[in-house]
Amino acid sequence: MSTDSPTSAKTKIIRVKRPKYIKKTQWNGYINPSWRKKDKKKVTILYNMIERRKSFFLQAYFKRNGYKYIDLGDHVKEDVRWGKEWGNRMECNPMYFTSGSLIRNLFKIQRETGLSKEEIVDNYIFLGGGGQCGPCRYGMYPQEYLKVVNDAGFNGFRLLIFSSDIGINQQCKGGAFTFDIWFLINFMIAFILADLLHVAECALRPYAKDKSHALSLIKKAEEILLKAFTSRLYFLKLPLALARAGKMLMQIPRNKARLPKIYVTGEFFANLAHNEGNYNLRRFIMDEGCEVIPGFFTQRALYDNWRRKQEALRGIKYAVNKKEKAFWKKSLRKQNTSTAIITFFYSWYHRSIRPESFGGKSHILNLDVLAKLGYDYYHPEIFGGEGNLEVAEAIYHANKIDGFISCKPFGCMPSSGVSDGVQAKVMSMYPNLNFLSIETSGDNEVNILSRVSMLLFKAKQKVSREIHKKSSIIYK
């Protein structure tokens, strides 16, 4: 054994060259120039929101108010490649899908119009959400959008980001567009309409005797609702249009069968994308001969209000002075008002289209009940992502469904902790719960859907045993 000390050997000194440029000031992120009123008519708004129907219906607001608008539609697999190529490393696939969709469409516009990058920067602006629904996302979405466009050469490209300081502070003061109460109401109506047609698809796609005919009528219903929503008399016309759509969907012939019922929950994007962002998960389940419970954006919006309400109640209880107490009281009134408005419109439009007439399951869960159900296993005031919703939903649905899927993006902190940790306890309490936790990354579709197929196979076996047992009892 050698006794030589490591320090006794000659050490080769490597001299590292100083970088040519050293930033001497704090980096404060990319700039987001304002959209001035004088440029309103020449600028086109680009928008897509989680899944196609959300941005499809919101175009009515922009048309009514004289804005030029392009609906970027659904996310596609190619968006992941664009997001990984231009974005930061090791991010979740919702970030890759949303930033990738933006940069892909900018290059598409350049290719199809022949405009230079500078001209595209002058004539287009992107509208999107700030992604502030979890601890891993605060400020990440706006800066990632700005990173990909600036790195791709679209320097100075502008964003309109709602639920984010970068959008509200820089765009709403004297700009061409403001996030006022009417935009918020129209945004709410758009996602309620999208949810109701999602209910129709979940009800009719697995049961319709002629699936292609059913889907074509749902498409026709979309056009009927969009036309009514585009009218300046949409408050009066939308309920009538919904009633007409409901009657049309009610006429679709359906098979009477007992199909396995599957519930899907999880992280916001992975749960509600309804496109290639989550491998068209619900459509895959339906096309495999199972019924899937619809996923509601409305439910998630109400949860965000519920979460802020709990924060306000706690703030009022522990306020150190009158000023702080008044702040939290104002926040509480705001959340209660928002919840009342969402609930009112959802109930109104629900009564108009009558989803139960075509087999739709459109029940919004009571968040106070869910909070109590999951309390002992995941405290409802540990906020971040979906909070204790996944745990509470598993307990709530344990004896009502045949399969339970928790879907989350690769590396999602809140969802991974819940699905892979706390749910193990829930499964020990309910051993008959057919549970599956999956992680989406945008490029492992075959692996994920094969695992889902195994869950569906177990669900079908369960239903088959129930039917056989029931028929045996009747025979006896």
Order the strands across the largest sheet as they lie in space.
Answer: 2-1-3-4
From the N-terminal CA to the C-terminal CA, the straight-line distance is: 85 Å
Largest sheet: 4 strands, parallel
The count of β-strands is: 8
Number of helical elements: 17
Under CATH, the topology of the largest domain can be stated as Rossmann fold
Q: What is the overall silhouette?
A: globular
Taken together, the total number of domains comes to: 3
CATH class of the largest domain equals Alpha Beta
Determine the structural class based on helices, strands and strand pairing: alpha/beta
Helix content percent band: 40-55%
The Rg value, from CA coordinates, equals 25 Å
Calculate the mean pLDDT score and round it: 89
CATH architectural name of the largest domain: 3-Layer(aba) Sandwich
SSE ordering: EHEHHHEHEHHHHEHHEHHHHEHEH
Unreliable segments of 5+ consecutive residues: 164-170
- Relative strand content: 5-15%
Structure report:
The protein is of the alpha/beta class. It has 3 domains: 142 residues, no CATH class; 144 residues, no CATH class; 150 residues, Rossmann fold. The protein has 17 helices and 8 strands. The protein has a 4-stranded parallel sheet, sandwiched between helices. The protein has a 4-stranded parallel sheet with strand order 6-5-7-8, with helices on both faces. The longest helix has 32 residues. It is globular. The protein starts with 43 loop residues before the first strand and ends with a helix. About 1% of the residues have low confidence.
Task: Provide the fold topology.
Layout: E1 44-47, H1 52-64, E2 68-71, H2 78-86, H3 93-113, H4 117-123, E3 124-129, H5 140-151, E4 158-162, H6 165-171, H7 181-204, H8 211-230, H9 234-250, E5 261-266, H10 268-272, H11 281-287, E6 291-292, H12 297-317, H13 322-353, H14 367-374, H15 389-397, E7 403-409, H16 413-429, E8 435-440, H17 445-475
Parallel strand pairs: 1-2, 1-3, 3-4, 5-6, 5-7, 7-8
Helix pairs in contact: 1-7, 1-8, 2-3, 3-5, 7-8, 7-13, 8-9, 9-13, 12-13, 14-15, 15-16
